[in-house]
């Protein structure tokens, strides 16, 4: 169920209508939780249980971390959370990629081995809800928030349908307080929410899919047929397509959440107006870049320890960020190039 479908519009109309007529804050939260699982289950019902298991694991481990005063026990529980979440993400998203590369590596030393055909289906949104859920256990471990949320509230934070499949990547510290406090959206919030949703649909359906995608598809399908001007036009069209596609979906998510009275962070701020690579990453997919900064780059050392250590931290962060986008060496190369550009920019 995607935002630009009649099925979703009907789904949203029903949920929004019920949200306004149901009495009590608890009932409205349960409505959103059930609706979010229905939304996710519409893609593949069995994977609802994977989402539920991942949610319960982090909620339970965070409570144990919060109750423990033993540093070793707290660290061990955090490792379990990291291993569980990243293990699931690694299996579903990178399992086939790793096996294929292992076969190539073995073949290079004369060992013929072919992995069994694996029909691993990538759960939709797993990259997004894994990072969102991990932010909770890490923040609790750091002492930056308390693990006192009810399971139903935490489950709504992880599964809230506007952000579930394509972000923005939310932080528990930002959304859980909003879920805990009773709220009813104002007419102004609903109006702005619907306006953002409609504008997001325009970006996705008209700009990305109707205007830019046909140019990209035609040239990229057989680039040898086209000259330099057409190839450059396709490259520029692709930059427009990915921006309007992703930003359009983010705007839809922000608008939908606002219709229910929830504030999501901005995810794009005119990235193609950036004056450098650092500035670009302060504007492009902000929820991912700030997540990588806070939970990966800074723990790796950040700017501490001199320029070469900072460059190493940047490179590792961007390589992992590239791999997060997809199981392909092309994404790793893309992340490595950005890591190199960011490092060189610091030297300038």
Produce the secondary structure layout.
Elements: H1 6-21, H2 25-41, H3 47-67, H4 71-108, H5 126-142, H6 151-159, H7 161-164, H8 172-180, H9 187-221, H10 228-259, H11 277-281, H12 286-297, H13 307-325, H14 329-347
Helix pairs in contact: 1-2, 2-6, 3-4, 3-5, 3-6, 4-5, 6-8, 9-10, 12-13, 13-14
Molecular shape: globular
Largest sheet: none
Q: What is the N-to-C succession of helices and strands? A: HHHHHHHHHHHHHH
- Report how far apart the termini are: 47 Å
Q: What is the radius of gyration?
A: 22 Å
Helix content: over 70%
Number of E-type strands: 0
Work out the count of structural domains.
3
Derived structural class = mainly alpha
Report the mean per-residue pLDDT as an integer: 93
Uncertain runs:
none
Strand content: under 5%
**Number of separate helices:** 14
Account of the protein in words:
- The protein is mainly alpha-helical and 348 residues long.
- It is globular, with a radius of gyration of 22 Å.
Supply the key terms.
348 residues; mainly alpha; 14 helices
Quick structural summary:
By secondary structure, the protein is mainly alpha-helical. The chain is 73% helix and 0% strand.
């Amino acid at each position: 169920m995607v935002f630009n479908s009649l099925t979703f519009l009907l789904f949203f109309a029903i949920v929004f209508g019920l949200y306004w007529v149901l009495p009590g804050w608890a009932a409205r939260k349960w409505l959103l939780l059930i609706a979010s699982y229905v939304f996710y289950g519409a893609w593949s019902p069995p994977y609802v249980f994977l989402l539920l298991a991942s949610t319960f694991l982090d909620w339970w481990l965070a409570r144990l971390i919060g109750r423990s005063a033993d540093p070793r026990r707290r660290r061990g529980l955090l490792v379990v959370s990291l291993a569980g979440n990243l293990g699931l993400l690694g299996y579903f998203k990178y399992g086939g990629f790793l096996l294929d590369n292992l076969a190539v590596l073995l073949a290079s030393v004369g060992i013929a081995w072919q992995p069994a055909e694996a029909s691993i289906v990538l759960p939709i949104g797993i990259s997004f809800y894994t990072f969102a859920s991990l932010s909770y256990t890490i923040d609790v471990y750091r002492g930056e928030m308390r693990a006192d949320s009810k399971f139903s509230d935490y489950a709504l934070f992880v599964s809230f349908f506007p952000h579930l499949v394509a972000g923005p990547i939310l932080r528990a510290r930002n959304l859980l307080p909003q879920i805990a406090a009773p709220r009813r959206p104002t007419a102004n919030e609903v109006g702005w929410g619907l306006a953002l949703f409609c504008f997001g649909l325009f970006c996705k359906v008209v700009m990305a899919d109707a205007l830019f995608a046909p140019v990209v598809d035609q040239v990229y399908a057989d680039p040898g047929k086209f000259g330099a001007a057409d190839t450059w036009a396709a490259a520029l069209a692709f930059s427009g397509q990915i921006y309007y596609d992703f930003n359009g979906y983010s705007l839809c998510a922000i608008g939908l959440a606002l219709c229910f009275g929830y504030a999501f962070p901005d995810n794009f701020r005119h990235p193609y107006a950036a004056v450098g690579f650092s500035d670009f990453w302060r504007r492009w997919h902000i929820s991912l870049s700030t997540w990588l900064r806070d939970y990966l780059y800074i723990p790796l050392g950040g700017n501490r320890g001199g320029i070469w250590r900072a460059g190493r931290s940047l490179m590792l962060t961007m390589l992992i960020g590239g791999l997060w986008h997809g199981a392909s060496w092309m994404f790793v190369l893309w992340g490595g190039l950005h890591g190199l550009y960011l490092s060189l920019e610091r030297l300038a």
